[in-house]
Each structure stands twice: as structure tokens, then as C-alpha cells.
Design a protein that fits this description.
eight-stranded parallel β-barrel, Chorismate Mutase Domain, subunit A, binds manganese (II) ion, alpha/beta, 10 strands, binds phosphoenolpyruvate
Length: about 350
């Protein structure tokens, strides 16, 4: 069995937060080395990250420098003494990473969705002992995430971590990928043995909310953070809006309040706490969704105002009521509750649209 020369103590650490950082993509030797040296000098980063092959949503975007970047990562490793992790999406990536002594592999969200790809990577790792970090799939499918991890367990990978990077959602505006924290908590409940790392960069897609999302991960007892950093983030070739400088990373980490207290309750009480946390996260999601719904209602209001249409359309209202009653009963919600919910949501939507009509009247 080939054993990569990496210290995997971090996975057994109970007390300390694991920090993974580095650029979204390796772009040049100097960008990689300068970012790594700065990170090493001013932050307590444990592992360097770099994307070499980039799975991009649209063609004609920068798709990574490819294998030519691996020696740059190797150089950054040797200059800092830090281990490095690289994303792999197929067997050939695995071979190249092993050739260049990459210490840890990570599976990206667009790969975890595909069991064929995950299986191919797992098989390429048969007989190799290297830690693997598995990001959640882009869709909120917990079984698929856990299934990906199981594929690596089945080929004998000893050290596996999970990365929560949020879930893609059409129409989402606030986050790049909605965190859906309750899914990460459910992951934790089902696989308490696997270290769970949060990736605020891909959840946020922007810098201004990185701190609060990282703090939330601390409050929920995540084991680590993967945060993208770049020596010159504004000019990054991928994910420029969400990357931060090593200095900003150091500041963010410094501002974090670590939750190191211990559970004092008996196990019944901690189960109750767990369910309360679940409720809080679901409520957060509901408020967020209601905000999105009203945002769309205001856009409809502007359209109707411009086309001189009345706000209220009984025909449309009946369709909504029928749909929601049907969905509500499938979800074990009482008819009376759906009735009350629909009436209050409709009133709020009309009030918001009326406000637009009033402002246009001046
Ligand atoms: C990345 O980490 O740069 C990346 C591509 O992430 P994800 O797979 O979470 O989209
Ligand atoms: Mn990225």
C-alpha cells in the first residue's frame, strides 16, 4: 500500500479548528507561492488549497491551468512546510496528484453528484492511503453526499472529511449557495464519526458575509473552515468576488468566537437541544424564503402597475390556494393552518404591492 507522507493528526484533533486556505485556482507559480508564503506568515492555516482543474458552470470560463500547476503547488508546499489539497474529478487527476505528492484530495460539489465519477476516483485510489475530503453535492441530497463518502470507505480510504459548501438553488439572491444548515446538522447526526468542515466562500459567493457565515459554523460546532484566499483577489481568474487576501483571512480568523464549552446536560437534554437547533435553522430558511417570495411579489406589483392592471386577480388567487392546500395536505398540515397561512401571506403581498402603486402615484 502506498502511503502519502501526510500528518493526519488534524482529523483526530478535538480541540482545534482546522483551517484550509489558498486560491480558488492556481494561476501562476508566483501567485501560488506568494499566497502560500503570506498565509503561512500571518495566519494559522493548516492546509493549503488550490484548484488545478476547475469545474465551471459555463464553457469559455477559465477552466484551470491543468497539470502544469502541480509543481507550483509542490513548491508552495516545500517553502511553507504545509500540506496541500487539490480537487480531483477523474482518475487521471488522481494519478497526477499522486505523482506530484499532493497530500489530500478533495471531491468537488459537481463531482459528488455523479456516482460514476466518484466510483472512478475511488477505484483509482485502491491501495493508496491518502486523506479525501468530500464536498456536499450541489443539490440538497444527503444520501448522495454520504454515499460518496461510503465509496471511499469501501476502497479502504482511512481518513475522510466532509465539506459543507451549501446547495445550489434557482432564484437564490442572498447566498451563492444556500447553506441549509439543517442538512449539515443532519449529516452530523448520521455520521458523527466524520469531521465536518464548512466552506463559507462557496456558500457566500461574496466577501461581506464571510465572517458571519464562518461564525455560524463555529456556533454549530464545525471542525474546520475552508476559505479561499488570494494574494490579489480582485484580479483572480475564478471566484474573484468571494476570495480574500491572507491579511483579511487572518483578521476573520482572529474575530471568530470559538465555542469550546462542553455539553453539560444529560443525553435527553442534548437531543432536545439538537431539535431546537433544527427548528431555528428551519425558521431561518422560512424567513429567508418569505423574503424572496415578497421580493418576487414586488416585481409582479411593478409589472402590474406599469400595465395598469389591478393588484388582485381572483383567478390566480384560486390557483395558488388550490396548489397550497394540496401540498399542505401532502405534508401533514391541517386545512385551517394552510388557510391562515395563505391569508396572511396574501395580505402581506397585497400590502407590499399597494405600496408600489402608492409610490408611483406620488
Ligand atoms: C472550489 O472549491 O473552488 C470549488 C470548485 O468548489 P465547489 O466544488 O464547492 O463548487
Ligand atoms: Mn472557488
Amino acid at each position: 500500500m502506498t502511503t502519502q507522507n501526510v500528518n493526519t493528526d488534524w482529523l483526530n484533533k478535538q480541540s482545534r479548528l482546522l483551517i484550509i486556505s489558498g486560491p480558488c485556482s492556481a494561476e501562476s507559480e508566483s501567485q501560488m507561492v506568494d499566497t502560500a508564503l503570506k498565509l503561512k506568515a500571518i495566519s494559522n492555516v493548516d492546509i493549503l488549497r488550490a484548484g488545478i482543474w476547475k469545474p465551471r458552470t459555463r464553457p469559455n470560463s477559465f477552466e484551470g491551468v491543468g497539470a502544469v500547476g502541480l509543481p507550483w503547488v509542490a513548491k508552495a508546499k516545500s517553502l511553507t512546510g504545509l500540506p496541500a489539497t487539490v480537487e480531483v474529478a477523474k482518475a487521471s487527476h488522481v494519478e497526477l496528484c499522486l505523482e506530484h505528492n499532493i497530500d489530500i484530495l478533495w471531491i468537488g460539489a459537481r463531482t459528488t453528484v455523479n456516482p460514476f465519477a466518484v466510483q472512478e476516483i475511488a477505484e483509482a485510489l485502491k491501495g493508496v492511503d491518502i486523506p479525501v475530503l468530500v464536498k456536499n453535492p450541489i443539490n440538497p441530497d444527503l444520501a448522495l453526499w454520504i454515499g460518496g463518502i461510503e465509496r471511499f470507505e469501501k476502497v479502504g480510504i482511512q481518513t475522510i472529511g466532509a465539506i459543507h459548501r451549501g446547495f445550489s438553488n434557482h432564484g437564490e439572491k442572498f447566498y451563492r449557495n444556500r447553506p441549509q444548515w439543517h442538512l449539515a446538522l443532519e449529516f452530523r447526526r448520521l455520521r458523527p464519526d466524520i469531521k465536518l468542515i464548512n466552506d463559507p466562500s462557496h456558500i457566500c459567493g461574496r466577501r461581506d458575509i464571510l465572517q458571519e457565515v464562518s461564525q455560524k459554523a463555529m456556533d454549530l460546532n464545525f471542525d474546520g473552515l475552508m476559505i479561499e484566499s488570494h494574494i490579489d483577489p480582485d484580479n483572480a481568474w475564478s471566484d474573484a468576488k468571494q476570495q480574500i487576501t491572507p491579511e483579511e483571512l487572518a483578521q476573520l480568523l482572529d474575530n471568530l468566537v470559538l465555542r469550546v464549552g462542553h455539553e453539560e446536560h444529560d443525553s435527553t437534554q442534548s437531543k432536545l437541544d439538537y431539535h431546537r437547533q433544527e427548528i431555528d435553522h428551519i425558521d431561518t430558511e422560512i424567513m429567508h424564503l418569505l423574503g424572496n417570495r415578497m421580493n418576487v411579489a414586488r416585481q409582479i406589483g411593478s409589472y402590474k402597475e406599469e400595465h395598469n392592471m389591478p393588484i388582485f386577480s381572483p383567478k390566480r388567487w384560486n390557483i395558488i390556494r388550490r396548489q397550497c392546500q394540496e401540498l399542505g395536505s401532502k405534508n401533514q398540515l391541517s386545512k385551517q393552518f394552510i388557510e391562515m397561512y395563505l391569508n396572511s401571506i396574501h395580505t402581506e403581498s397585497i400590502n407590499q404591492q399597494e405600496k408600489i402603486y402608492r409610490s408611483k402615484r406620488g
